[in-house]
Structures are given as structure tokens and as C-alpha cells.
Specification:
Number of strands: 0
Helix content: 55-70%
Shape: globular
Structural class: mainly alpha
Length: 217
């Protein structure tokens, strides 16, 4: 990347963070006033224990987003990443608003001690039990894996490992249902596929236009 592209990369990254933070918190806050919610939990999920230590696996989603910013150094890959991240976030917001799912399995953390319990209480405080399906916590590292897959032969496995850890963690800290996790994988895969397909379509249209506009030999 040249200097201009690096500046644009930084600006788009900051915009993406702002779009996620403002949109997520606004929808989360507005949803608490609604009277009807959906429960996507399976009966067996009530038997899954709350494991506080996995809150640190839950936090890995932020590491994956930061690593995406620092690792992706090709402008085309970065453009693809931004389009996919913004598209997947928007797609999730539509579900959060029109299909509000509430996590009903959060335990009472009163009496639990230790740093993992304290961090879990903090997340429960700032992140109300809505904005569940699809899980953006699973979507983001999944997208990072897909974006890095072609050019970054080591980091793609790092991102893949993060994705699996996060997917397990969101269930064990009772932030998401299993269905939310599946929705997160599907969201990332579908939006990334659409991003790549749209790039191919626009490239094809551009080539056809250039051929039509080129002077005859």
C-alpha cells in the first residue's frame, strides 16, 4: 500500500469500529423496551454449564479484528474485508431489529469471585441480553479467516483457531445460543461470497465497457 491507501485503510477501520459500536449499543438499548422476543435455545443448552474462564476466549474477537487491520496489507484484500465486515454487520443489525432474540440462560453471577467472574459481570452490565442472532462475535473472526485464507498461510490458521475458540466461548459464557453461533458462521460465509461475486461481476462489466469504448485497431 502507498501512503494514501494506508491513510484510507486507517479511516475505513475507524469508521467500521464506530459503525459497530454506535449501531450495536443503540439497537441493544432500544430492544430492551420491546415486549416480544424470540428464544432460539435448544433444550440441551440448559444443561451446558457457565464457565467463567471462557470470557477470555470471548474477548478474542477484538484481537481478531485488530489483527485483520495489521495483517492485511494488500489494498484489494482490505477493500474486500471492509465491504464484508460492513455488510455482515448491517445484515446482523436487520436481524437484531426485526427478529429480536433474548438470551434467557444468563446465570446470576453474585458470589462468584476471580477476575474472570469480574470481567463476565462487566460484559453482562454493558451488553444487555439481546443482539443475539446472528452472533457478530462469531461472524467477525470467521470473516477474518476468509479474508486471510488466500495470502496468509499461517495467519489463516490463527484466525480459524480464534473462530473456534470464540464460537465455543460465546456459548459457555451464556452470551449466545448454539443457533446464534450457526447464524454467525452463515452470515460471514454468505456476505463474503456475495462480496467476491459482486467484485467479479463489476470487474466483468468494467472489462466489457472498456472493450466497447476502446478505439478499433
Amino acid at each position: 500500500m502507498d501512503k494514501r491507501q494506508r491513510r484510507e485503510k486507517r479511516n475505513w477501520f475507524l469508521f467500521m469500529i464506530g459503525y459497530f459500536t454506535a449501531g450495536y449499543l443503540a439497537i441493544n438499548w432500544l430492544t430492551q423496551g420491546r415486549g416480544r422476543f424470540y428464544d432460539l435455545g435448544f433444550p440441551f443448552e440448559r444443561e451446558i454449564p457457565f464457565v467463567a474462564i471462557f470470557i477470555f476466549g470471548y474477548i478474542l474477537v477484538y484481537v481478531s479484528v485488530l489483527l485483520t487491520y495489521f495483517i492485511i496489507d494488500d489494498w484489494d484484500d482490505w477493500r474486500r474485508a471492509i465491504i464484508a465486515f460492513l455488510g455482515a454487520t448491517t445484515f446482523a443489525y436487520l436481524f437484531f431489529f426485526f427478529l429480536p432474540v433474548k438470551m434467557l440462560l444468563r446465570p446470576d453471577l453474585t458470589g462468584l469471585t476471580g477476575i474472570s467472574a469480574s470481567v463476565s459481570r462487566f460484559y453482562y452490565l454493558i451488553d444487555l441480553p439481546y443482539n443475539c442472532f446472528p452472533s457478530l462475535h462469531v461472524t467477525y473472526p470467521s470473516l477474518a479467516t476468509l479474508v486471510a485464507w488466500r495470502r496468509h498461510h499461517i495467519m489463516r490458521w490463527v484466525f480459524a483457531a480464534m473462530t473456534l475458540i470464540v464460537a465455543l466461548s460465546v456459548v459457555l459464557v451464556k452470551q449466545h445460543y448454539v443457533a446464534d453461533v450457526a447464524g454467525g458462521f452463515l452470515n460471514a460465509s454468505l456476505v463474503y461470497w456475495l462480496t467476491v461475486k459482486s467484485e467479479s461481476w463489476f470487474s466483468c462489466c468494467r472489462r466489457e465497457r472498456d472493450m466497447l469504448n476502446s478505439p478499433p485497431a
